[in-house]
TrEMBL record:
Family matches, as CDD domains: ABC_Org_Solvent_Resistant
InterPro entries found in the cross-reference section: AAA+_ATPase (IPR003593), ABC_transporter-like_ATP-bd (IPR003439), ABC_transporter-like_CS (IPR017871), P-loop_NTPase (IPR027417)
Keyword Membrane annotated: yes
PANTHER family per record: INTERMEMBRANE PHOSPHOLIPID TRANSPORT SYSTEM ATP-BINDING PROTEIN MLAF (PTHR43023:SF6), PROTEIN TRIGALACTOSYLDIACYLGLYCEROL 3, CHLOROPLASTIC (PTHR43023)
GO molecular function, a single term: ATP binding
Full protein name: ABC transporter ATP-binding protein
High-level lineage: Bacteria, Pseudomonadati, Pseudomonadota, Betaproteobacteria, Burkholderiales
Keyword set, alphabetical order: ATP-binding, Cell membrane, Membrane, Nucleotide-binding, Transport
Pfam families associated with the record: ABC_tran
Domain ABC transporter: 5-241
Gene3D superfamilies in the cross-refs: P-loop containing nucleotide triphosphate hydrolases
SMART domains per record: AAA (SM00382)
Length: 267
């Protein structure tokens, strides 16, 4: 099957508040796919549905051919071993060394001998350029370095699918570029598939093969980064060119200013 993840006609809401409606997405193996959209558009929710932390109200969502909403707890646990996840802000365990943070999933999910775990951790840390920081605690490294340690931890089990939730948030421009290049390099070196949730247009377009734009729970545009740059779709244009007003209004919906200051009229 060419797609590691396939989403078909998926509907999801929190309680009776709809968040995603009629979603259809493909995530082909070996690719880096960016999921972009404004705050609250449902990007993180998609990652949580793929990881099986949430269940859709209807529709299908397959990972490696298995329909995630149908899986029982033990099958879900096995499937999650194939997934690496870099959470928003990539929090590390602060009381553990860099080494132990990366070793954590290997201890949790495997019975490998300690010497092999040591070598694997050092290889992963080497891949992110931090082998010599193995003995440091998170408080002793910079924010950009911490993000790279979180990256090494996310790929510790050589996942077939790696999900990144806002991996560039809060980083300086240099660390952002380093992180973006690493995401691409690690994806290609591991032969995995990466899903990148971000609202950073430059960094995401720089490494993604394909981009989905989400707005109010629906895919409003999709294509290669070049196609998205050339798109005349008003929503994509607003997003790509960071325009303050457009289909996504600057003003929170409600009464017009004229009404509020007693001049009447409609917004
Ligand atoms: N546990 C929850 N219970 C109820 N509503 C929630 C819950 N988690 C998220 N939401 C709502 O669902 C919507 C989509 O949230 P989601 O986190 O998927 O958006 P997002 O696109 O990832 O946004 P951001 O870029 O700000 O992280 C938001 O309006 C949010 O308030």
């Amino acid at each position: 099957m060419p797609n590691i993840v396939e989403i078909r006609d998926l509907h999801f809401g929190y309680g009776d508040r709809p968040i995603l409606s009629g979603l259809r997405m493909d995530f082909p193996r070996g690719k880096v796919i960016a999921v972009m959209g404004g705050s609250g558009s449902g990007k993180t929710t998609i990652l949580r549905l793929i990881g099986g932390q949430l269940r859709p109200q209807s529709g299908s969502l397959t990972v490696d051919g298995q329909n995630v909403p149908d899986l029982n707890t033990s099958d879900l646990y096995l499937l999650r071993r194939k997934m690496g996840m870099l959470f928003q802000n990539g929090a590390l365990f602060t009381d553990m060394t860099v080494f132990d943070n990366v070793a954590f999933p290997l201890h949790e999910h495997t019975n490998l001998p300690e010497e092999l775990i040591r070598d694997l951790v050092l290889l992963k840390l080497n891949a992110v350029g931090l082998r010599n920081a193995a003995r440091l605690k998170p408080a002793e490294i910079s924010g950009g370095m911490a993000r790279r340690v979180a990256l090494a931890r996310a790929i510790a089990l050589d996942p077939a699918l790696i999900m990144y939730d806002e991996p560039f948030a809060g980083l300086d421009p240099i660390s952002m570029g380093v992180t973006a290049n690493l995401i691409r390099k690690l994806n290609d070196a591991l032969g995995s598939t990466s899903i990148l949730v971000s609202h950073d247009v430059n960094e995401s377009f720089g490494i993604a093969d394909y981009v989905y734009f989400l707005s109010e729970g629906k895919i409003v545009a999709q294509g290669t980064p070049d196609e998205m740059r050339a798109s005349q779709d008003p929503y994509v244009k607003q997003f790509v060119h960071a325009e303050a007003d457009g289909p996504v209004p600057f003003h929170y919906p409600g009464r017009s200013l004229a009404e509020d200051v007693g001049l009447g009229g409609q917004q």
